[in-house]
Amino acid sequence: MKTSVERIDETTLKLTVTVEAERVGAAVDEAARHVAKEVRVPGFRPGKAPRRVLESHVGRAAILDHAARDAVPVFYREAVEAEELEVLGQPEFEVETFDDGEEGVFSATVEVRPDIDVPDFEGLQIAHPEWEVDEAEVDEQLDQLRQRFAELATVDRPAQPGDHVVLSMTAEHEGEPLEEVAEQDVLYGLGDPEETEQELDRQLVGTEAGQIVAFRDTLGEDYGEHAGKEVDLRVIAKEVKATELPDLDDDFAITASEFDTIEELRADLARQLAKEKRAEARGALRGRVIETIVEGLEVPLPGAMVSQELEYRVGRIASQAEQYGLELEQFLQLTGTSPDDLIAQLREQAEETVRAQIVIDAIGREAGLEVTQEDLEAEIHRQAGRLGHDAGELAEFMTAPERLPALVADTFRRKAIDHILEHVQVLSAPPEDDADLEPPEAEEQAAAGEAEGAEEDDTDSAS
């Protein structure tokens, strides 16, 4: 087999292949046997018609087309391996000659990764994303915790947004009562009418216990067959209840946590928040490094890679819609996005992703990085921890033949980004081990464990 490669543009190659006449003849013979089994020739059992009779019955061209259709993809894969090409997507074949007794000649036009100059990132200064926790963030965590232990208490004042109102309501449409709309002694959360645009909220703001409001409103979709009807509503505000938050004192700390004092609870929330914020910042740093290196680079984008990434992103949104029991079109209608706008947005994102992948892969190859079995196992455990899945089950899923290439590619890129981080200068980074976030008792336990380990080592040595 002879092969030659012609570059058409930065992402497209034309691979021309010449196949020995003997192999072409064997492919034609095999095709004739297949056709003979599929076609009924009068006077002969399936597969038993002589070659000349078969050709006169179906035409020689049909057998040659069958042979080329089956054999050319096989010869193409051999040629790709021989030329050590990393092809993308499906090729476009053009068969020049493929006939019994002659050399076969065909070409395959296919996309490949572009050759790019690896950017110089040695010593590049990159600011670490914000990772320090301020007092306001801890206060917010405490407020959220207080909300979980909040209680409703009756108040003697007009209702305001954020309150709850115990109400009873009757409704009439054209003078006829609507029992489906009526309510008795329900607890209603009062929203800000400027935000909710609900007439009931607008009418209840400022009302006091025992006050009656009457107004006309249009029923929403929640009322089924009555949706869209104009109704006359009569609402009695029976009680106004306000949310009472517990005091931030030691009693609250005992109730809401395993700590005895509010200072201990606050310190623990600060530690947990700091761990979460540092982890998020370290993840964001990886994205910032990529953005900084890729920014401004002219990278030719293979259409096959962009299409694959675009298909993945569309599929992910379709899966989200399915979780809500919706078709993709229905989901887009609810979000106010047209299909054309969605594809345009996702295509732009896909192009950015592919551009980054090409640059990262080039950096990794130039650095001589390779993916080992240990690397794959580490990546699977990392993904399992992130997703909350069993590592064994996830490994079985991710190492399936159709998914293994994606796992290898993701692992390779993670190693490449690690390599980049070793050669850039990260400014204002947090401590690597987070040891400063361990509570005092944890530090004491760790020290005790190290002491016990040292004693065991001494014992082992003596024996």
Keywords:
single chain; 463 residues; alpha+beta; Alpha-Beta Plaits; Chitinase A, domain 3; 6-stranded antiparallel β-sheet; 4-stranded antiparallel β-sheet; 51% helix; 19% strand
Written description of the protein model:
- The protein is of the alpha+beta class and 463 residues long.
- Among the domains are: 111 residues, Alpha-Beta Plaits (2-Layer Sandwich), CATH 3.30.70; 69 residues, no CATH class; 94 residues, Chitinase A, domain 3 (Roll), CATH 3.10.50.40.
- Helices cover 51% and strands 19% of the residues.
- It contains 15 helices and twelve strands.
- The strands form three sheets. Strands 6, 7, 8, 9, 10 and 11 form a six-stranded antiparallel β-sheet that branches.
- Strand 7 and strand 8 form a beta hairpin.
- The longest helix has 33 residues.
- The protein is flat, with a radius of gyration of 35 Å.
- The C terminus is likely disordered.
